[in-house]
Amino acid sequence: MQKPTNGELEILRLLWQESPATVRQINDRINANRRKGQKEVGYTTTLKLMQIMADKDLVSRTREGKTHLYSPNISEAESQQALVDRLLETAFQGSAMKLVMKALGSSQSSPQELDEIRRYLDQLSDEKSSDR
Amino acid sequence: MQKPTNGELEILRLLWQESPATVRQINDRINANRRKGQKEVGYTTTLKLMQIMADKDLVSRTREGKTHLYSPNISEAESQQALVDRLLETAFQGSAMKLVMKALGSSQSSPQELDEIRRYLDQLSDEKSSDR
DNA sequence: TTGTTATTACGAAAGCTTTCGTATATAATT
DNA sequence: AATTATATACGAAAGCTTTCGTAATAACAA
Q1: What does the alpha-carbon distance between residue A4 and residue A13 come to, in Å, rounded to a whole number?
Q2: Which of A29, A56, B6, B90 is least crowded, fewest Cβ atoms below 10 Å from its Cβ?
Q3: Contact criterion met (CB below 8 Å) for A8 and A58
Q4: What phi, psi does B36 have (nearest 5°)?
Q5: How far is A66 from chain B (nearest CA, A)?
Q6: What is the pTM of this model?
Q7: Is the peptide bond before B111 cis (omega within 30 degrees of 0)?
Q8: Which residues of A lie closer than 8 Å to B, measured between beta carbons?
Q9: What is the pLDDT of residues B71-101, one digit of tens each?
Q10: Parallel, antiparallel, or unpaired: how do β-strands B59-64 and A67-72 relate?
């Protein structure tokens, strides 16, 4: 499985939200998300991109009457993991800690979320002390 | 300040480790990091890239005898923050928590690091409860 | 049937990043 | 001074992603 480009990632995100979907649906949603002043993406542009993604096996498609229905071939979780791993390697010298701090610092997480992270940390610590 | 490309980011990383540096030094280190079988990057390739970066104001340079000395114009912290923010937006719908969990899950952090993150979480919680 | 509309297929242009060859300048060496 | 080595400047090619025009196809309506 290969690394999706930016354009491909945008389409994958939409497919993760709702799939299967037609090219028309995806293209409409892409343009709905465009902020004012930004040029619209042509239908055939989206079509071509999705055809290429099918070639690369990033998505699969089935004929449904006149149109094609597309579904993602990689899960969101899988892809998030790959993105995080790459960011860790390229920008944080593999230090998850530094990345975590930057992520927490920038966004306002709720106390509940912080608690959940604590629980996860505890779980990790437990695994470490018992895995031998 | 604009978003660095992949190649530019590689050079910035090296400059963050040690600057100022010459094109020769950077190019040598780029090739030293190349894993076996991977084609070497030509000197003029690196030169051109660094010239472009100077045009874009990603780096600044001063003449030093025959050569140029390059320094980064953005800090590592600043750039890491930008990368994390972008990843948060594009791949995690803004949920720092999900990103944090993925980051922690993939890499083996030491118990010390996990503790440090706990302290940081506590600090964040304190700020929340006292900032009104 | 005939015309209209929506879809796919596909080649090629446009745009951006990376790579490289060549010319030119500058310093060091013999 | 002549040669050699190393640097910069720069245009252009190579490679990849994105965009678009056009043609072929299928469904639908008049």
Answers
A1: 11
A2: B6
A3: yes
A4: -50, 140
A5: 32
A6: 0.87
A7: no
A8: 9, 13, 79-81, 83-85, 87-88, 90-92, 94-107, 109, 111, 113-114, 116-118, 120-121, 124-125, 128
A9: 999 999 999 998 998 888 888 888 888 999 9
A10: unpaired
